[in-house]
Amino acid sequence: MARFRAAYGAGPLHLLGVVICLAVVGYALSTGLSLTGRPERWLIWFGGGIVAHDFLLLPFYSLLGLFAVAALAPGARRTRTGIAALNHLRFPALLSGLLLLVWYPLILGPGERTFSRVSGLSKDVYLERWLILTASLFALSAVVLLIRLPRLRRIDDHGGR
Amino acid sequence: MHSRLRIGPFRPGFWRSPLRGPWLASILSAALLPLLAVCALTGFVSHWAYDTDLGANAVFGGPGPGNGFDLYGLDWPTSPSWLYAATQGLHVVTGIAAIPILLAKLWTVVPKLFEVPPVRSPAHALERLSLIFLVGGAIFVIGTGVINIQVWYPFGFGFVPAHYYGAIVMVAALALHVVLKLPVLRDALRRDGIRDRLHEDLAHTRPEPELPGRHTSAPHASSAPTLTRRALLGGVGVASAGLAAMTAGQVAGGPFADLALLAPRGRGRGPGPNDFPVNKTFAASGIERGQLGADWRLALQRDDRVVARLSRDELLGLPQTSAELPIACVEGWSTTQLWTGVRLRDLARLIGVAPGGAMEARSMQSGGGFRRATLNPGQVEHPDSLLALSVNGAELSLDHGYPARVIGPALPGVHCTKWVGKLVFS
Known about the structure:
The structure holds two protein chains of two kinds. By secondary structure, chain A is mainly α. Chain A is built from six helices and no strands. Chain B is elongated, with a radius of gyration of 27 Å. The mean pLDDT of chain B is 92.
């Protein structure tokens, strides 16, 4: 058993679990592929999802975040007011971006023809609604920041926490 | 040994957020797991609701292994009437609510994608392989689902089998992940508790220490915090609850409908009796208007023979029944209306068919999916299962299936056949 652990890196139950998992994965992928054909499209949507998230979306919003930190709360001169301003920008921006990510086919309109044909509705309203929601989120965040501002200023001026 | 890999994101000090670590990952996982579990379960329930062993109901195009799991052997029930609206609403709402938590979780553990050495042992290699199926599967299933409910089909493969078998990939990888990571979650929560970290203010927000003997996403060197863990989790929670509320608006209706600002089917077309949403308009059915005129007849078939043809007026002359029933779409929206028409079981008795058989409804459509659907014996015999001729006191509109459509309690929307031309009893 100790030799197995040393060679494999975990106990035999780990191996059993992995084998069961990969067997089910193999069954599901082969059945799904045999039904739909077009494995290249599966690769695009399966692998593409990982690449799009790990190497595009996450680096993109992380970089935006770094720029915002550098502009509003740079490490050398970091104040509570600056940190609060940063977060009151980050939250509405992330929420608005999330809404766009989830509903972009409605908001930006790909598939408009099928959508109106089958639903009898148009996608026209969604861009406007998203913009209004985005504006409202930023406005709400700004109002809350304004209310918090005097207290944050006092903390910064008195060098307290 | 691995020094040439220690550049960019592979460098130990590259990921600098003080918030990342096993505690944060565990809290997010504890929130994510129930949502994904309900989402997966209701998804498989939806497959059950299609009664794929009956007639041409098999959604994947044929009997055999291509039919998905058919372990149930049970007919889909008719009670409560909102059952399918509830399970399918839950499916879509939980799937969408999981998105912000999944994104936060992936953000928390991203340093592990670049861990050095990339492979420590055969066990580690296999585990990382399974993570490809976990992350890829989750993005694939949720992504295709979210795009599909927005009536956009850019996939290049059939959505239903891909979404179904993609879900099995995700569930298998998720089950393994839960089993393997449960000890990490236990250790992290035992070490830190839950509430203590939620009470930390900015000055007390410090990096998590490593868990002894485990490789985690806690940073090697970190910047000063600009956010507390409480605020991060609060933001994720608000995002998740907000998305859920906005999507639930197209299931729950009533005052919630006004919240469904970005939901695809959250709006009707006006205040009229026929203005509630449709899955498929008459224009998209491919049926000629002339086919539904005065010459239209409902054919009633027993076994292989058409034994009666009824005009709409003759149908209106039969005893009429009204039932308030939701019609629930697989896309997760539903709407409850008052339907009036002839009981399906009355039509069966009319041509001498005894209770206990199934019934296939065939639409006048000449192409497209779901132009016929087989109802199980329980659905056929239910007193609220109707061949509806009117809705909310008005004649059915063309978009809602004029001259006649099937409606029944807990019946999946795509089985509520519209523009019915023939009912086949067996």
